[in-house]
Specification:
The chain is built from 2 helices and 10 strands, in the order E-H-H-E-E-E-E-E-E-E-E-E. The protein has about 160 residues and is mainly β. The longest helix has 9 residues.
């Protein structure tokens, strides 16, 4: 399993429940541009991510990200959620990217010590060269709740994993 060196950026909008009606219809085209990212995530969420310093890698030639990865350590870098503090460490997180086809990719994620799993329900990837961003609406489930959420992962493919 490859490692993702990860600093977590959290936005209040990321924790807001999303409706399946909020994601693009199958006939809407995701082309990797900032306009299509905004259409998928919504202008407010995209603006919140950018304001927090999150790197969005637009483009229609992303690298292959297929494989299993572990985010460790999973550290909060910045947030606009009251009560959050930079430096907070979350449980390690395992991701599987699969079936990458053009600008679509399947996603499964699971916290290592928590009974919560995330399954991509409409996942797209943009980027160019070795830089990429994956955007997904997930169905997050644990023993006590279910929520539809947005997850955005940006990185740069390097020999020792994703940075």
């Amino acid at each position: 399993m490859k490692k993702i060196l990860f600093l977590f950026v959290m936005s209040a909008a990321l924790l807001t429940s999303c409706s399946k009606d909020d994601k693009p219809a199958d006939n809407e085209q995701f082309d990797g541009s900032m306009d299509s990212v905004s259409n998928f995530l919504g202008e407010e969420l995209l603006a919140a991510l950018v304001d927090l310093g999150f790197n969005v890698n637009a483009g229609n030639r992303p690298p292959s990200v297929e494989g299993h990865f572990e985010i460790s350590p999973c550290v909060l870098e910045s947030s606009n959620v009251p009560g959050d503090w930079p430096g907070y460490t979350f449980d390690d997180y395992r991701i599987k990217f699969s079936n990458q086809d053009g600008l679509k990719v399947d996603y499964d994620g699971k916290h290592v010590n928590v009974s919560q799993s995330d399954v991509g329900d409409g996942s797209f990837i943009s980027g160019d060269g070795n830089k990429f961003t994956v955007y997904l609406i997930t169905a997050t489930e644990s023993d006590t709740y279910r929520a539809d959420t947005a997850i955005v992962i940006s990185g740069k493919i390097e020999n020792d994993g994703i940075h």
